[in-house]
Each structure stands twice: as C-alpha cells, then as structure tokens.
Amino acid sequence: MKVRVKYAKYGVMRFVGHLDLLRYFQKSIRRSGLSACYSKGFSPHMLISFADPLSVGTESIAEYFDLDLRYRDPYTDPDTQPEEDDSAWPDPPSPGEILEKLNGVQAEGIRILSVTRIRNGRKGNAMSLVSAADYTFSAVSDEAKKAFTEENIARLMAQDAIPVEKSGKGGMRTVDLKPSVYTFSVCETDPETGQDWELPAGSMARLLCRAGSKDPCKIDLLLKRLFEEAGVVYTPGCVRIRRDRLLGGEGPGDLISIETNGQTW
Amino acid sequence: MTKLALSDDVLLQVEKPARYIGSEINAVYKDKEKIGIRFAMCFPDVYEIGMSHLGIQIIYDQFNRRSDVWCERVYSPWPDLDAVMRTRKIPLFALESQESVRDFDFLGITIQYELCYTNILQVLDLSMIPLHAEDRTKEDPIVIGGGPCVTNPEPLADFFDLFYIGESETSYDALFDLYLSMGGKAGDRKAFLREAAKIPGIYVPSLYEVTYHEDGTIASFTPRYEDVPKTVRRQAVTDLTDSVYPEKPVVPYVKAVQEKVTLEIMRGCIRGCRFCQAGMIYRPTRERDPGFLRKRAETLLASTGMEELTLSSLSSSDYTHLDSLLRSLINLCNEKTVNISLPSLRVDRFSLDVMSRVQDVKKSSLTFAPEAGSQRLRDVINKGITEEDILRGCREAFAGGWTDVKLYFMLGLPTETEEDRKDIAHLAQKITDVYYAIPKEERHGKCQITASSSFFVTKPFTPFQWASMFDPEDYISFAGTVRAEMKEMKNNRSIRYNWHEPDVTVIEGVFARGDRRLAPVIESVYRKGGIFDAWTDYFDMKRWEGAFRECGIDPAFYTKRPRTREEILPWDFIDAGVTKAFLWKEWERAQKGLVTANCRIGCSGCGAASYGCGVCFEERNAPEENGMAGAIQDAAARTAEEAE
C-alpha cells in the first residue's frame, strides 16, 4: 500500500538539511516497526519519495513524502496495479495507526500531521504535484523589522519586474521573480498562534508563490531584494521563515491541496 | 523547547549547522537539578568523525547509567564556526544542554591520534578554560584525558589535570564517588587530585617530577609525595562476555563517517605484530558471548533504525564463534533488510563464502595487509601471514569472481632494505600472475591491484619502541624505490601504487614517544593558528618546524635516536600488562627475524596474564599429553624452522 505522509518540521530541526532529513526519516520508519518496501538488488533502498526540498533554516507545517509500505493494498483499482504481488502481505494498518506509530519515534521538531492512502504507481507523486507554496515570515533582527513594512512590500510588488542575480550551472544570471510571486503582504498575527511552531509576533508577512520544479520563487533572493530596496542588509537568520502550505494546480486561480490530490478513489 | 547556544544567524552562516544542535534520537537528557556530576565528553575532532567512535558511545552509555551523572557530548567546532566563536566570544557548549563546558564538573577528552593535540587546546580555549592545568581554579572543570594516546600522555602533561589510563569500565565509579565525597566543584581541587591519584588507572601528572640527563634523556621520574603511586596500572575489564554495552546509541542527523550499528565482538588481539600498539596494550584477548551479541544486534537495530551493521575487533577472524555469530547475524540482517559490512577478515574460503553472500562481488574489493613486501621483513614484524597465504587467498577470490585487490604496506620498518621495498612491487606482480593464469574465458576482464603504503610510526608499548625513524626525504625515497620497481613490472597496467604524506609521519613520531618538554611546541603551533592538523588541508609543516625551532626542540631527538635498554622511557611509569622485559625480548627476536607464536598456539609470557582473564586462561587445543608446554615447544620449533 502507498501512503502520503504530511509532517511539520520546526524548532531545532530547521537546521537539519534535506539529505540528512531523508536519512532521518528512513531510520525513523525502521524504528516505528512499520514494514516498508525496498528496491531489489544488492543495496536495497527504501521506496520513499519527498516533495519539494526545504532550505536549511526554514520551518514548515506542510512537508510531504510518499511511502510504499509492505501491506496488502486495501483498494482494487484496475488502472494501477501494485508493483509487486501483495496478496500474501499482511493486512494494512489504518492511516490512524500508521500516524500513531510514526509519531511514537520522532525527534523533537518533527511531527506527523496526517497519513493518507494514495494510488499505487509513480504517477502523481508528491513532488510532481507541487506548483505553489505559502510562507509566513517573521523579522527577528531590528534591521529586518525596518524592511518588513507595508510600504516596502507594496513598493516592491508595484514594480514591473523583480530582477535578481541567481547562481546556476552557467554562472550568474539574471531572473525575474515577479511572475513567481502571487501575493505578498504584511500580516498582523500568526495564524498558528499557540502551536510549537508559532513564530515571534511583531513584524510578519505572508507570501504565496510558485514552487516545485518549474521556475520556483527563490525566497532568499526575494527577501534580499526587499531589503536592498529598504536600504538594509539581508543576512541569513534575520528572518524566521515557515512554509505553511504546499499546493498543486495550474496557477493562482486554481490551487489545490497536495494532501488530498493523490486520493481520487 | 530546546534553546540553542548559537543564534540563527551564526548557525546559518556555517557549514552543516546540525552538527551543533544536539537533540538527536537517543541523546540523553536529564534534569540538571537532580544531578551530582555534569560530565562533558569530548572527541576533539569534527562531529562526523567523533560520532563514529565506538569508545565514546560506550562511555556515554556507561556514565549515563548512573542517576547522579549526566554525560553530554562535545566536538571540535569546524574552523568556520571556530572563527565566529572567537570574534563573538561565544563559549564552547555541550550538545545536549547547550550550556557552557566551563560550568561542568569534568571535561573528558579522548585522545585518539597525535595530530589532534592542537584541537585539544582549541577545545580548552574555546571553553575559556586555562590551557595549563596549574592555572585552573574552582571555576573550571577537572580535565581528564583518555584513549590510546594516553599510553604515553607525557607531551600533554601540562594541559591535563588527570589521565585515565585504560578501559573506562573499571575505575570511573570510584573517581565519581570520590569527587562527590570531596565536595564536588566547590571542593578543594588539589586535595581531590591527590586522592584521585590513588585510584587504579588514574595518573595525575602534576604529582610527578621528571629530571633529565645532560644528553636529554630522562634521569628520574618520581612521585612528588610518598602516598602517590610510582606506577599506574592500565585498566582492563576482566569479564567482557556480557559486560555493559550500549543499547541505544545516539543517531546523528549529519551523516557520520561510520553510520552503522557496531558490535564489539572482542578486545585485544592474539597476534602480536611487533609494530602494533593496539595488539599489545589491549591484551589479553577477551571475547564477548555470541548469544549476547545476537540479542544486542536486534536491540540496536530497533533502537536506532540503522541500515547497516558491522563488527568491531582487532582481528575478527580470531573470534572463536565467528562462524555461528555471522550465520545468525546474516539471518537477522536479511530479515530486517539491513546491510552487514564485514570487518577485515583473513581472506580464506570461509570469509569469501560469507562475503559473497552479503555483498555484491562485482562492486567490492578484497583487502590484504601484508604490511611488508618480503617474507623476511614480515617475520621481523611478526606478521603471521605468508606469501602463499596471500596468493592462495587471491586465487580463491579470483575464482569467486573478485577482480579488485587492495594491499596495505608500511615503509620505514626496522631492518628494512632496498630489496624489501622492491618486493612490494614483486608481490603485486605475483598476484596479477595468479589472475592471468586463469583461462581467459573464465576471467572477468582485467584485475586491479592497488598497493598503498604508509610510513611506519614507532609507538610506545611495542617491541619497536626502541627503534629509530627517518627523515621525510628518506621516506620519499623509499616510496620512490617502490614506485620505480612497480613500473618495471610486466603487468604494471593492472597495478596502482599510492603512498601517504611523510611530514605528518614525523610529527606523529615525535609526539608518540615524546616527553613533557614537548608541551610548549603544541601550544606554539596552536597559538600560530594550528587546528585540525589531522586534516591534510589544515596541516602546515612549516608551522610545526617553526614551533620546534622556537622552543629549542630537535625533533630528531625523538624520532631518529635509537634507545638503549637502560634508558628510562617517558611511559615507563605505566604498567600495561605486557612487561618491558617481554618487549625487549621481542625487539631482539625481531632483529634476528624470529617469529613468535600467537597467544592460542602458545603463551609467550608477555605479562598480560596478570589481568587474570581472557585468552591467557582459555583451555588450549593442544594435545593432552603435551599441554601448554607442548604448544609452546611446537611454536618454538616452527620459529626455528622459519628462521633458517
């Protein structure tokens, strides 16, 4: 059976990089006692795939991975046969049981938020669905608070283009971030007030932008640009960043949750 | 929620910030209000190296089993963070509590290799602890050194309050109990050290006085007070069968160099290679129970979720129950989809069969450590492996589908000649001959023989402790001889040769057999910015040469001077089981090219039996009527034969 797991990464875990997190989850699944599927061959690896990697330092309450578990698939779907004959495998645990088992073995700073059964097969994996994301920012340094004002953000958004220097394979090149920014505005309070991942209040902003593999918005470059416009220096760590939603769909007018997108039974 | 010692802006400007956040799975957290002793256990190298070390895992587990002790971990901040901590005056902290090391009761530092000595000073300095033990006060922790290098702690004597010599399992409880009974951190530091010196295995360097002859050798090494023992007994666990062993080791976030479950199957080695310090100081050989290991493997895999399991010992092939242990572990690992990686096993039919079952033959290579190219020199170093053993192993491996062979050698060994060096190339050629003797249609393309040589460093408590070493130029010429001879070989296209840097060899050699007068050199290198000297990118020979000059020290005094039997060696005050008389006898036998039998064939009376355990008390397999004496005679006869 295949499941999509949604989790939060917050607190000290924000300093754990994507590749380290990948290995962390493989180990935590092994500790949970759940039985995962592995690839064949001499060095088998767990069949797990992650959606859009998160930058070091950024927190999130909307991370996803898809996982193949070694239990009989509870659904029969003529279009998507399991990759292996699973008829002799054990009965599937419920999503609730899986969630509980996983949460029993996580470190402080990782919490499993939901587990959803999804179709077998490679099509429609979490990564390929991502097209947009939602972020909340909280300025922590005094410099950063100067940049995070309604006027500064409005001035940046009023421009026809937001050109930034981006380093890539062929050296530095200029890209325009404007088309990847859907909405960007200051906000008064954190919608996640009271949660472990609540950000310091005072000077906050929210961003809805393009994400995923196709021309995603470069968050750090966008913030750097905002700071430049405001005449202050952007340094890593002066803004706390939290990703609040990962979305699929065609664009600003057509955004859907990744969490339910895979489930089309 | 955990409060970090470093702010976001610091963590986001350094490489791999997860090195510094603690909070890993199985990290131990305690209520500090209910704790009598806070212990900071430091491995003075970067996190990924330190987290791969089994000894620290054992100590962390052992200390934290005590409800009145909270043991936390400390590693060296990488140079990027080091610079930030200095400019911003951020004190070094322990990973779990994220609190300043200076506020701890103890700072324990494991000393694994000579090139980390500058990192020890880095850790003390960043912790804002005075570098010299004599300058420390109630405000500072008691700084303890341990690990293999404290087999000769003298070059570090000025920097440590005390050294714990030997295995941690035996005397730490007594040390902690004493500390608590004497008032803990508020107690009288000097009085505590004086009392601690009476605990077996504890060496307090400030309580000993050293005088020197005019020629620079040691004239006397004596306790300053009558109640301080003259010798310090190296500690060893007598019963290892099912002694304490971690069940829940810490699982790092950042990928450690060795990220696997490690089962320590035994300590000590029966072999008696004359260059090998571990083979001497961990005597006698003691084994763990295979049933215990099998159960512990299962617990460890469940508690860590690791994907790989390996065995640890100095010579796994000599573990009595290896066959049954591997069988049960392979079954366990298959069931749990865990890789099992095999430690260096003697290459024979059994090990090849095991290897082909657990790894992809096409991708893996076989490793031999002949250490010397000629049989003569292998006898000198007492490496109990013959050319025929190697060629037979290779023949069987090639038949099993392997094509890659790695060979490890040392250059600069005592009595070594030009011919011995050239024989390294000849041995490589003979192995390729074995391969190309296989009919072409049965071969898998070309074979690849990779020979590597390091330069021999003379270590204390080995029969070679009296031997002299060479200059970097000599080492380069030795390697040059091997390389030139390699090029002459018929199958040189199937042979690759590489060698290590000679400069670090000399530095290691100086400190391995150094004395107290070397402390200023370490400090001078550190003051000039030397840290992470074990890393090629950070090692700077010029800095070391400058420091020697500045301190008026001639490194050749330590490396190139042959010692006499009468000379007082800086580590003579340690009783490590093996006696000086035995080591000297072995040194003489080495020069005659006489081999000495391993512990199971016959006891050679090294002195380790004084620990009252292990292989020294095993029942011998020798025929009843002959008994142990017979086995020794057999070995002696074989030695005589081989000597001719």
Structural class of chain B: alpha/beta
**Mean pLDDT rating of chain B:** 93
Strand percentage of chain B lies at 5-15%
Query: What's the multimeric state?
Result: heterodimer
Layout of helices and strands:
The complex is a heterodimer of chains A (265) and B (644).
Chain A lengths: L1 E8 L8 H15 L15 E3 L8 E10 L26 H9 L6 E9 L7 H4 L2 E8 L2 H6 L2 H9 L4 E6 L2 E6 L4 E7 L16 E7 L8 H12 L8 E13 L2 E4 H4 L4
Parallel strand pairs in A: 3-10
Antiparallel strand pairs in A: 1-3, 1-4, 2-3, 5-9, 5-10, 6-7, 8-9, 10-11
Chain B lengths: L7 H4 L25 E7 L3 H4 L3 H11 L4 E7 L3 H10 L17 E5 L6 H10 L15 E5 L15 E3 L7 H10 L7 H8 L5 E2 L4 E5 L5 E6 L8 E2 L27 E4 L1 E2 L10 H4 L4 E2 L2 H15 L3 E5 L9 H15 L2 E3 L7 H10 L7 E6 L3 H6 L6 H13 L4 E8 L6 H19 L11 E8 L16 H17 L6 E5 L2 H11 L6 H9 L13 H10 L4 H5 L14 E2 L4 H13 L34 H17 L1
Parallel strand pairs in B: 1-2, 1-3, 3-4, 4-5, 9-19, 10-13, 13-14, 15-16, 16-17, 17-18
Antiparallel strand pairs in B: 5-6, 7-8, 11-12
